[in-house]
Amino acid sequence: MQLKTLALAATAVATAAAQFQNLPPGYTNRTKPRPFSTFGFNIIYQPDYHHNIIYPRIVELDCGVILATASLNTTPGVFPVFRSKDGGASWTWFSNITDQHNGLGMDAQPALGPVLPAAVGDWPAGTILASGNSWGNSSGFIDLYGSKDKGKTWQYISNVAKGAGLGGGLNLTGDTNGNHIFEPTIWYDNGTVGVFYSDERDPAHSQKLSHQVSTDLVNWGPVVDDVAFPRWSDRPGMTTVAYVPPLKQYILTHEYPGGESWNGENYPVHYRLSSSPWAFNNATSIPLSVNGRQAGSSPTVVWTPAGGPNGTIIVSDATYSDVFMNRFAGQPDMWEAHAIAQPDGYSRALHVMRHNPDHIMIMGAAHWPGADVPGAVRPLSVTVFSVEETLRRPPRDAYPVNRYW
Ligand SMILES: *[C@@H]1O[C@H](CO)[C@@H](O)[C@H](O)[C@H]1NC(C)=O
Ligand SMILES: *[C@@H]1O[C@H](CO)[C@@H](O)[C@H](O)[C@H]1NC(C)=O
Ligand SMILES: *[C@@H]1O[C@H](CO)[C@@H](O)[C@H](O)[C@H]1NC(C)=O
Ligand SMILES: *[C@@H]1O[C@H](CO)[C@@H](O)[C@H](O)[C@H]1NC(C)=O
Ligand SMILES: *[C@@H]1O[C@H](CO)[C@@H](O)[C@H](O)[C@H]1NC(C)=O
Ligand SMILES: *[C@@H]1O[C@H](CO)[C@@H](O)[C@H](O)[C@H]1NC(C)=O
Ligand SMILES: *[C@@H]1O[C@H](CO)[C@@H](O)[C@H](O)[C@H]1NC(C)=O
């Protein structure tokens, strides 16, 4: 999307819980979740008044430990890493991913995972990859980081891409071809690691989606287009990717400012299918809608084998608290919107639980761009829901609900 609220960074350390006015139902008297169960709206971390937390990401290690991170506006910015050993029921602040290379911070839009299934370059199987945007006044860097010790420490690996900086200022009202890069996502396929990101540097496009690949994590190939529309002002953004085995295809979700909007949605969610994760550019962007309501803004996607012979593709957006589910391998007219216990939020993270793919973890925090109502700082929170149980309930067609604050 656009720029994060870097200018709001404060120096106070996040400790005290904020005072709220309109509390969401169940906020004050939630019961403690049982380990490895399903549960709703479990609070991981509550920033104080001077901070906000937004844009969470999740990775699960082979041993079942879950790590989560998000963008926290400390000065300098760090990506806090929270750890759960019990399926998301309880969490501790375990480590931080810090900028070790640019003298800046880790300021926005973290990527976390995958865990390398095989060695790549000098980095052994089991390495957890991470990325994010490290932003200064004159440059912005999408760098790759790795952890060889299950997330306790993080080391700089290499720079993937460089874009414009913030110019000492912040412009939330628009960012038209400012040469920035945003929103990395890391993908592993057969010995190759790719980093997808939103890209304003091509003069032919206000913004397009690009990726670069590496087979040693040090040398990165040329910028390859994934979604680049012919109309200059179109701004596809925010790639996430999943593999859909029954189709033998990969799905890429993106928001699409400039795309057809028939219900006032300015960031309608679209998706593409391709037989290679490195070749989405010739695929068609399909709008994700249910009964004329379009999913909107900062989509994320996973596929789970649960839910039927085709498994289920699950997409989260920012406009609705509901998730969008498709048991027909992405067939455009077969999406259903289903209620879950997680409030809506900007770029919520989705994760299929390794021990039980019927269990989907969804994590959220602030709305764009950080604090919703003055004085109301939303926590980082997590829900685990059952695919089968959710699909048994009738779909409810994307009612825009759960705007608690
Ligand atoms: C807990 O929350 C529910 C629903 O929000 C409410 O009906 C109930 O009275 C609350 N219980 C206590 C002990 O606060
Ligand atoms: C992470 O960073 C925060 C903010 O800078 C700091 O207060 C905290 O001590 C750090 N935690 C760890 C585990 O490094
Ligand atoms: C970036 O620019 C802002 C506003 O001009 C200034 O306050 C800040 O010191 C600059 N930061 C660096 C690292 O130069
Ligand atoms: C912010 O961006 C908008 C749209 O591009 C532009 O009209 C406005 O002048 C910019 N504001 C600043 C302070 O640069
Ligand atoms: C995986 O990579 C190897 C080595 O580059 C190649 O020979 C093989 O064909 C690839 N397999 C698939 C399924 O792409
Ligand atoms: C897209 O199609 C064009 C024309 O057929 C071809 O030249 C190009 O290599 C294709 N790009 C990808 C990424 O498959
Ligand atoms: C699986 O998906 C395909 C492709 O959309 C569809 O034709 C088929 O009916 C689906 N099968 C089931 C059992 O849902």
TrEMBL record:
Gene3D superfamilies: 2.120.10.10. CDD domains: Sialidase_non-viral. Residues 1-18 form the signal peptide. GO terms for molecular function: hydrolase activity. Keywords: Hydrolase, Signal. InterPro entries: Sialidase_sf (IPR036278). PANTHER family: BNR/ASP-BOX REPEAT DOMAIN PROTEIN (AFU_ORTHOLOGUE AFUA_7G06430)-RELATED, BNR_ASP-BOX REPEAT PROTEIN. This is Glycoside hydrolase family 93 protein. It comes from Thermothielavioides terrestris (strain ATCC 38088 / NRRL 8126).
